[in-house]
Structures are given as C-alpha cells and as structure tokens.
Design brief:
The complex is a heterodimer of chains A (about 325) and B (about 375). By secondary structure, chain A is α/β, with parallel strands linked by helices. Chain A is built from eleven helices and 14 strands. The radius of gyration of chain A is 23 Å and the shape is globular. With about 375 residues, chain B is mainly alpha-helical. Classes of the chains: A alpha/beta (about 325), B mainly alpha (about 375). Chains A and B meet through β6 and α3 of A and α1 and α8 of B. The complex binds adenosine-5'-diphosphate and magnesium ion (MG). The site of magnesium ion (MG) has 4 residues of chain A, from α1.
C-alpha cells in the first residue's frame, strides 16, 4: 500500500465551483492521508455535496485542481472511477432489485465476472451483515440497511478511496454506530474516506475534520487541534456550563442579557456560556438564579467541537458583515 | 460499450418485474385491436323516416328499392313534412323520404316525379354515403324507364370498377396495419424514455456516472429491452390480426418484421431525444405527447395523407409513423415488396440518424 508515490489519498488545491451566479465552492483546499477518515461538516447548502461530486469526477471545478489516489480529476476521471466508491446523499440503488441483484449489478458494471464476482458479492454481504436480506427488494429495507447495502455496492470493486455523503442522515443510533465501525474497518485496510455529516460525535471520530461555511473552508484539522484554536476561546475568555433546575430555556434569555456573556448555546438541559473576563462561577450562578428563580449550577468546561463550529461561524458572519461591500 | 451487458440484464429484470408497464404493453394493444377490428366506417342501415302521401303499389315499390340498398332502414312513417324534420332534429333518424300524392299518377303518365330526400348533415361520412345511395336509386329507376321507353338494350357508357386487395372495403384491413405503427410508439418511445428519465429522477444515474459504464453501453443496454418488447407486441398484434380478424397479409411477413426493426429503431432514437432533456417522468410525458399526437393525426392513420394541406404533408414526412404505416399497409394490404418500399426505409434510417445526433448532443450536456 505504501509503495504509492504520494502519502495522500486526496489532495485538493484551490477548488471553486460556480452554478451560474451561485458560487457553491470558493477556493477550497484540503488533503487526506491514505487510510484516514476525513469528516466534512457544514450547514446545508455550504457545498459539501458539490465538493464530493467534483472529487468523484461527475462535476468539473470552475477553478483549482484535485488529485484522487494520485490522479487528477476531472482529467483522469475514467481511471479514477475504477479506484473510487461513492455513496450519494440520496439512496441511489435500484428499489425494484433485490439486495443480491443490486450487488451483482454493481459487480458486473465494474467488469467482475464468474468466480471473482461471486467472491466479491459474498465478501460484501458478509461485511455489511446483509445475509438475512439477500432476497429482499431494496425498496423494503429500512434506512439503516439501505445504507449498508449502498456501502456494500460501492465496495464491490475494492476502491482505494471512498466518498460517503451524509451516510448516517436519518438512521437510528445503533445503525449509525455499526456503520461507523465498518468505516473504521475500511480505513484500517488503507482505504481513504471522506464522510460528510451533521453529527458532532461522528466528527470527533474522524482523523481530520473540515468545516465548510458559505462555500469556504472555514477550518480544517485534527479535532483536538481545533478545540485549542485561539479564536475558539480567545485570551481572557472562559467556557462554563450552567445547569438550571427549571430547564435551560428558562435562563437562556437572561444569560444573553448579561454584559460579560459573549455567547450562549443550549446543550440539552444546560447552557454553554462563553464568558469575557473572570467572573466567579458563583457570581454567574447568582445572576442566572435571579432571573430564573430556580437553583443554577455553574462549572467550567472545555469547548466541544460544536462550540468550535458555532464560534467560528459567528466570527465568519461578523467578518462578512463588517467590511462593507467585501466582494465575494 | 463498457457495462452494456450488466445494464441490459438489470433492465430486463426490472421490466419483467414492473407489472404496470407489462400490463400497459399487453392490454392496450389488445383492447385497441379489438376496438378497431369491429369498427366499420362503411355506412349501413341509416335510420330513415318516410312520408308517403301516395300510398300506392308504385310508392311502396320505391320505398323497397331504397331499403334494398342496405344504406336505408325505414324505422317509422310520418304524417307531415314538419314531423319528418322533427324526427331528424331529435336524432331518431338521419334521413327522410317524402313521396308526393301524385307520384303514381305522374309515373304512369311519364312525367317527372319529384321525391324529396332530407339528409342529416351533421356527420359528413353518413350524409355523403346516404346522398350517393339516394342518387343511385333515382338513377337506376330513371335509366330503367328510359331504356324501356326507347326500347334500347344497353347503356352508351359503362364502367366496370374493380377494387383491388380489399374488395369488401373492410375498415379493419386499413385500420389495423396503421394501428400497429401507433401501438409501437407507446412502448418504443414512451416506455423507453421513461426508463431513462427514471434513472435521473431517482438519482440512480448519479451513482452510475461514477462507475466505468460508457454512455453508449448505458443507452443501448437500457433501450434494447424495449426494442424487444416492441417486437413481441408487433408479433402478437399481427397474429391476432390474421387469426381473429381475418385480415390477410398479402406480402412477405418476414419483410414486414425486418422493416419494423428499422421503425422501432427510429422510435427508440426518439425516446433518447425525449429523455435527454427531461428531468422528470411528467416532463418526459409532455415531450412525448408533442411527438405522439402528430404521429396519430398526421401519419395517415386517422386521416388520409391526401386530405392534409401541403405544409402538413411535409410535417408528416418527418414522422417515422408515416413511413411505417406506408410500409405496413403496403405489405399487408397490397403485397408490396422491398423494391416498392425502400424510399420509406431510407426515410426511417435518415430520421434515426438525425435523432441520434440530436440526442448525443443533449446527453453530453446533462452528463457534464
Ligand atoms: N446542480 C446544481 N445547480 C445549481 N446549483 C446547485 C447545484 N448543486 C448545488 N447547487 C447549489 O450549490 C450550493 C451548495 O450545494 P451542496 O453542495 O448540495 O450543499 P450541501 O451538500 O453542503 O448541503 C447550494 O446553494 C446549492 O443550491
Ligand atoms: Mg449535500
């Protein structure tokens, strides 16, 4: 595996893509090591699917260049197709074919025949634990099983790079965990993966995460590095969690009104506060209790990945608004 | 051609599993065939009212002569002209015959007798045939009398008409060979176009685009099953036509089958054009309509080409159905051979080539 010329499975340099007047991607760069899972995050419409389509060679970039498994796209798209697998955001297998028929079809499309085809089919069935559903029409599978089937189908030709566009959207937590276990297994075999997701727990499991916002790559790096970014918790600020017996919503408004509170986010029953200066936790609790007329407990915390993205998004939209007429 | 066999197999499985499509492909032809097999556009037994003021042996003989043409069927008798008119307005009868009180008298004296025939003009076909039948009755009566009076034996001019190929002028013999062409447009163009558009609509095309399947392999693999389906339909329709409706095939059936492949190919190319730019099945259906309606109305299937104005006849020439109807009627009714039909075959091939060109351009755009 390491005999390949580059240590990177994917390298993207300054890729942009326009749809008429809409700029879907702006000057995006990233690189993914072989055997690494790259998590691509960002709000809806930020350009995640567009980036994946470009890397799959079905959409041409307006500007910039990209190498997938060492080959340029879209230049070498034909050769790249043999080396990549793609699980689109929408389920894209045939509803009116059975699990077996879908897998056989994709094996044949990639030119597999006879014993080799059967061998790959059995391997995919075993990997995705699809044995009990072999004769079932894809239309009759539940969301989680559909995704396993889609993953299995995209692996028939043993791709070296795999793209998954929101593979866990709308499936239950157990199915989600199991799908991720499969992804780790593949990464362990040297497959390079790019996964888009909205789930922070999934992002935390990725080797590298990138956050797209308004078509730009806002930040990219290892999750642990991102938590320590100076912009996330600027010098002199601290993060606290405030838990209120009356519920987080009861103190949300008053927390916003406090002069020293820079940022508030609800996390389940608690609030996450970004606080300017050094008020004691007891003081914050007192201020909030006054508003909620219920006991409040405040304790210092480290930022989460979600805090990172929320904070960076806020800074980016402020930067967007401030320099008037900033061209985009 | 990469991926052709895989696509072909998949498409065949999907087609066999799609009961709606199959039912559509089998039931529609059989239904239409039965309908057109029993329809007869020859006018017979037109309901007729008679106002006989003469009430004599002569007048009754005239009424019988009208009935003997098989065009008129005397349903009732009226007692005034106004009553006759009313019967026609009410739609109970389509013709009315009024015989004057002095009919027998004038015939006996050899003076012209006037008989009034009123015809409902709301159906041009019926009124036209009733008119010529009425004229025929009058003419043959008059000639008989004139010949009797002059003592002559023969008419100065006689025409011996001979209708070739369809001596009874049965409508089925004309309609069914045309129907074959129209039926095939459904499976050849509509169903085939749907099968491509469905891949786009359901997102499966996006998945296929990241595989090494070639555009040619994809398109051929998807369309050939529909070519086969159309061919099976053709054979079924021809079998029912000859056995149930006893429309004989005067020419070579293998020539007909062979040339129908050229037609099916043109239809499939049309499917490509229809599906190339349509994002949904509804859009594809609308586009297909723009092709189907002229194919039905202008191809000579419903109206004879000779009844079209000049510019519509030009439009008719670019429709594949026009040429295939000419081919199938030629072979089935007249027993024509390839030497007679090759211009139509050439036209089908040229149309196909142009359609392929148009669709590859459109397809490139959508796959880009
Ligand atoms: N085929 C397309 N035509 C026009 N606009 C598009 C097309 N695909 C994506 N876009 C636009 O590009 C932007 C990014 O979309 P997308 O990549 O799908 O975002 P995400 O996957 O992050 O939700 C959106 O504004 C979207 O409307
Ligand atoms: Mg998306």
């Amino acid at each position: 595996m390491n005999s390949s010329p580059s240590e990177f499975g994917i390298e993207v340099r300054g890729v942009s893509r326009d749809f008429g007047p809409v700029r879907a991607l702006h000057d995006v760069s990233l690189s993914v090591r072989r055997g690494e899972i790259y998590g691509l995050l960002g709000p809806n419409g930020s350009g995640k699917s567009t980036l994946i389509r470009i890397l799959c060679g079905i959409l041409a970039p307006t500007a910039g260049s990209a190498l997938v498994d060492g080959l340029p796209v879209p230049g070498e798209s034909e050769a790249v197709r043999q080396r990549i697998g793609y699980v689109p955001q929408r389920f894209s297998l045939y509803h009116d074919l059975t699990v077996d028929e879908n897998l056989a079809f994709f094996a044949e499309i990639y030119g597999l025949r006879g014993a080799r085809k059967r061998e790959r089919q059995e391997w995919a069935i075993a990997l995705a634990h699809l044995e009990p559903y072999r004769q079932r029409l894809a239309a009759h599978l539940s969301g989680g099983w559909k995704q396993r089937l889609a993953l299995a189908a995209s692996l028939m030709h043993e791709p070296r790079v795999l793209f998954l566009d929101e593979p866990t959207a709308g499936i239950d937590p157990v199915a989600r965990r199991e799908l991720w276990n499969l992804l780790f297994e593949l990464a362990g075999k040297g497959v390079t993966l790019v996964v888009t997701t909205h789930y922070m727990d999934e992002a935390e499991r990725c080797g590298t995460v990138g956050y797209l916002y308004l078509s730009r790559m806002l930040v990219s790096g290892r999750p642990a590095e991102l938590l320590r970014l100076p912009d996330v918790t600027p010098r002199g600020m601290r993060r606290y969690e405030a838990e209120c017996a009356a519920g987080a919503a009861a103190v949300m408004g008053s927390a916003r009104g406090l002069a020293y509170v820079e940022d508030v986010t609800i996390f389940g029953n608690a609030l996450h506060l970004l606080v300017d200066g050094a008020p004691e936790p007891a003081r914050i609790a007192r201020d909030l209790e006054a508003a909620a007329s219920a006991p409040v407990q405040v304790r210092p915390i480290d930022p989460s990945l979600e805090d990172v993205f929320v904070r960076l998004t806020k800074l980016a939209s402020q930067a967007e608004a401030e320099p008037a007429g900033a061209a985009r | 051609m990469k991926g052709f066999r895989a696509i072909l197999r998949k498409e065949a499985i999907q087609m066999a599993r799609d009961e709606g499509t199959l039912r559509f492909a089998i039931a529609v032809p059989i239904f239409q065939l039965c309908l057109f097999g029993v329809i007869d556009t020859n006018v017979k037994h037109v309901p007729t009212v008679v106002y006989d003021q003469s009430r004599t042996v002569e007048s009754r003989s005239l009424i019988r002569d009208f009935e003997n043409t098989a065009t008129f069927d005397v349903k009732r008798f009226a007692r005034s002209r106004a009553e006759m008119r009313e019967e026609i307005v009410a739609g109970r009868v389509a013709t009315a015959i009024e015989i004057p009180p002095d009919y027998a008298d004038r015939r006996a004296r050899g003076v012209p007798a006037d008989v009034l025939v009123m015809i409902d003009g709301s159906d041009a076909n019926t009124s036209g045939q009733a008119l010529s039948a009425a004229n025929g009755v009058a003419l043959s009566h008059s000639i008989e009398e004139l010949l009797a009076r002059t003592g002559g034996e023969d008419l100065p001019l006689r025409v011996f008409p001979q209708i070739l190929f369809n001596p009874d002028s049965r409508s089925a013999n004309l309609l069914i060979p045309g129907l074959v062409a129209i039926l095939l447009t459904f499976s050849g163009t509509v169903l085939a176009a749907f099968s491509i558009v469905k891949e786009r609509e359901r997102g499966t095309l996006e998945q296929l685009m990241v595989t090494p399947v070639s555009p040619v392999g994809l398109v051929l693999g998807k369309l050939i099953p529909y070519l086969a389906l159309g061919f099976l339909q053709l054979i079924a329709v021809l079998a029912i036509m000859t056995t149930v409706f006893r429309v004989p095939i005067h020419g070579n059936i293998f020539l007909l089958l062979g040339l129908s492949v050229a037609y099916l190919f043109a239809l499939i190319c049309m499917a490509l054009v229809v599906s190339a730019s349509a994002a949904t099945q509804i859009e594809a259906m609308q586009r297909a309509q723009a092709f189907l309606l002229p194919s039905i109305m202008l191809s000579g299937y419903v109206f004879p080409l000779s009844s079209l104005p000049e510019w519509l006849r030009v439009v008719a020439q670019v429709l594949p159905a026009t040429h295939f109807i000419a081919i199938s009627r030629g072979i089935i009714i007249r027993g024509a051979g390839f030497a007679d039909l090759w211009p139509h075959v050439a036209a089908l091939l040229i149309i196909s080539a142009l359609l392929v060109l148009a669709s590859t351009r459109a397809f490139r755009k959508t796959l880009a």
